[in-house]
Amino acid sequence: MEYPALVAGKTGRFAVHFTNLGDFKAVTGGRVTVELLGNGSTDRFVADPQKGPGIFGVNVTPRVAGNYSMTVHLESPAVSD
Questions:
Q1: Assign residue 38 a region: left if phi > 0, alpha if psi is -120 to 50, beta otherwise?
Q2: Which pLDDT does position 52 carry in this prediction?
Q3: What is the DSSP letter of 2?
């Protein structure tokens, strides 16, 4: 996963890559969500439609400055994590 330093009110583009370790092939299809948990709330950002095997692009815009925990969720026919 690659992403820039996040700044409140500005959009950072995430590049998230998933490989199925069962067969070592890129994950195709599915839904990726990035969550920022902090400051008493959870913000969710859903990936754009997949452009290439295994690669998902997500625009993340934190609303306010602060300390956050980040989680990334994958739901696909082949694998969920």
A1: left
A2: 83
A3: B
